[in-house]
Amino acid sequence: MPFVPIDKDKCFYLIDYGANLNADGEDLYKFALMANLYMKENNKISNPLIGIFNIGIEQHKDFSLHKKANGILLANKNLNYVGYILPKNFFNDSIDILLTVAKLWNILILLSSKKIKKYFDYHSKAAAIVFVVNGVIIKEHGSSDEVQFYFTLVKANKCLKNGIINKLNNRNYDV
User: Fold this and answer.
1) 124 touches 155 (CB < 8 A)
2) How far apart are CA 47 and CA 174, in angstroms?
3) Residues 46, 67: Cα–Cα separation, whole Å
4) Which CATH number fits domain 3-169: 3.40.50.720, 3.40.718.10, 3.40.50.300, 3.30.1360.120?
5) Which of 8, 32, 101, 135 is deepest in the core (most CB within 10 A)?
């Protein structure tokens, strides 16, 4: 669950940004639930905005996995799901959680590399969150320096203090 900075104080998180080649609509929904919990508990955002990265906002332009996830997300009234998000809207505070897949993510890189570079201090923000069956992994690059490692430990400590692992294991993440 890496994040993309919007400005110095705001970012959005990418869900299934290519980690799973076989994700389907139900998987994207479950990933959204876990990210929703993370945003509430660790980032203290009471009602995170969730969107699906798509090539259009019209229903006929979605991929099959998006269509299924869209239907399930719309049915869950406990989530603040805003629907399909176009690349031009990524940086206008319209989302906190973006459901995506690796191929579509490549489009975002082309569209936003200058904006990301302007705000991204990789030393304090590089670690990505990976939710696994019985826990959370905070992944850092092998070339990380002591500053990056420190901020990775801070992020891991925050997950532990906020009980993310227990809540995920108890499937208490859909509210």
Assistant:
1) no
2) 12
3) 26
4) 3.40.718.10
5) 32
CA 4/CA 16 separation, integer angstroms? 14
For position 175, what pLDDT does the model report?
47
- Identity of the amino acid at 142: G
Q: d(Cα 165, Cα 61) in Å, to the nearest integer?
A: 36
pLDDT one-digit tens code per residue, 113-146:
555 555 555 556 666 767 666 667 777 777 778 8
Instruction: Classify residue 61 as exposed, middle or buried by CB count within 10 Å of its CB (0-12, 13-18, 19+).
Output: exposed
Burial environment of residue 123 by CB neighbours within 10 A (0 to 12, 13 to 18, 19 or more): middle
Q: How many C-alpha atoms does 53 have within 13 Å on its Cβ side?
A: 25
Name the strand (E) or helix (H) holding 40: helix 25-41
Q: Rounded CA gap, 96 and 40, in Å?
A: 11
Phi/psi class of residue 56: alpha, beta or left (left: φ > 0; alpha: ψ in -120 to 50)? beta
